[in-house]
Amino acid sequence: MSSAIPVIPALPLQQHLPTASPLAYGCMGLGGGWDRQPWSDADVDHAQAAVEAAMEIGVTLFDHADIYTFGKAESVFGALFKRQPSLRDRLVLQSKCGIRFADDEGPKRYDLSGGYIVEAVEASLQRLGTERLDILLLHRPDPLMQPDEIAEAFQRLRAAGKVAHFGVSNMNAGQMAWLGRALAQPLVVNQLELGLGHLEPLDAATCFNDRQAGARPGALAWAGTMEHCQQHGIQLQAWSALARGRFSGDTAQDPADEAARALVRQLAQRHEVSTEGILLAWLMKHPARIQPVIGSANPDRIRACGDALRVQLSRGEWYALYEAARGAPLP
To answer: Is 208 a domain residue?
Structure first.
């Protein structure tokens, strides 16, 4: 049983934004469905309940993307700012750009051309009803991206006061280094899929060279990524940190997950916290000081995530969860 509230180490991001919180809230579930139906006042009420629950557990960083619910997530957040004008200055606002849906010009694609980055930010600011983003992330690597062109777009946005800091999402160490060589300011965030449901970035450091030990085929692509972020003070954010309920939900899914699900429940009882708290505490124990992004729009589940701030897993518990989620012992 946890007898004291653990000390949460400072985040790398806090050197740039001191008000950044150990947990972040992901707004992908706001704004209604993934359709072209207009958002409603009920969607704003839903967003307000989620934001209030997140702020109750100390969350100050709210993560958006221009594509979330086809822009409606940003729009309902903008409506929420109109309801509560003081809210904007109480939080760290982050959004992403670079994914384009199919249109007359082509199929779904990634676009990190300088002109599109600027255009996308302008549209996000309009939907959000604000003059600035605290952080802009490039959502996915674009095979056609040119670092010098991206750097120029970043400089334009920063000089205009529209974006304060920049980062990336879903990029590995080589991509970050290649992009970073052209930038006048450091990247401050890299947001990856990471957690018990997606172990490749960790397997890259432990067992990528031992396929028989259960390393995922994609692990090698992430070699050095977590170490690069730690070396350069880049905040690692973990999306799908709760693995969409695979290990904490009430309903069993893949039978292969049952050992990890059972261990998560056991540790939750031992530490007298929620299963969500165990999943996020597992991420936060890593020396990279990972910032989990809570994706649920359920206020009760959001509040349950706050338990992660008051539990410190032992090294043995951490490795037991890692092994159970991998489904095989380490080599």
So the answer is: no
| Mean of pLDDT values over 92-97 | 98
Q: Are 98 and 117 in contact (CB under 8 A)?
A: yes
Angle (CA) 208 210 213, round 5°: 105
170-194 residues labelled b (16+ CB within 10 A) or e (exposed): bbbbebbeebbeeeeeebbbbbbbb
Domain that holds residue 93: 18-193
Residue 128 has what DSSP assignment? H
Task: Please give the Cα distance from 136 to 169 (Å, whole number).
Answer: 10
Which region among 114-118, 167-171, 216-220 has the lowest average model confidence (pLDDT)? Answer: 216-220
The answer to whether residue 142 is domain-embedded is yes
Active site members: 68
Distance in angstroms (rounded) separating the CA atoms of residues 199 and 276: 17
Owner of token pair 């952080």: 135
Residue 147, classified by CB atoms within 10 Å of its CB into exposed (0-12), middle (13-18) or buried (19+), is middle
The tally of domains found in the chain comes to 1
Rounded Cα gap, residues 64 and 215, in angstroms: 32
Q: Name which of 109, 116, 48, 119 is nearest 83 in CA terms.
A: 48
Tell me if 12 is assigned to some domain. no
In this structure, what are the phi and psi dihedrals at residue 137, rounded to the nearest 5 degrees?
-110, 145
Q: What is the pTM of this model?
A: 0.95
Secondary element (H or E) of residue 264? helix 258-271
Residue 7 resides in a domain = no
Helix 72-83 crosses helix 114-128 at what angle (to 10 degrees)? 40
DSSP H or E run through 275:
helix 275-284
CATH of the domain at 74: 3.20.20.100
Could you count the other beta carbons within 10 Å of the beta carbon of residue 223? 18
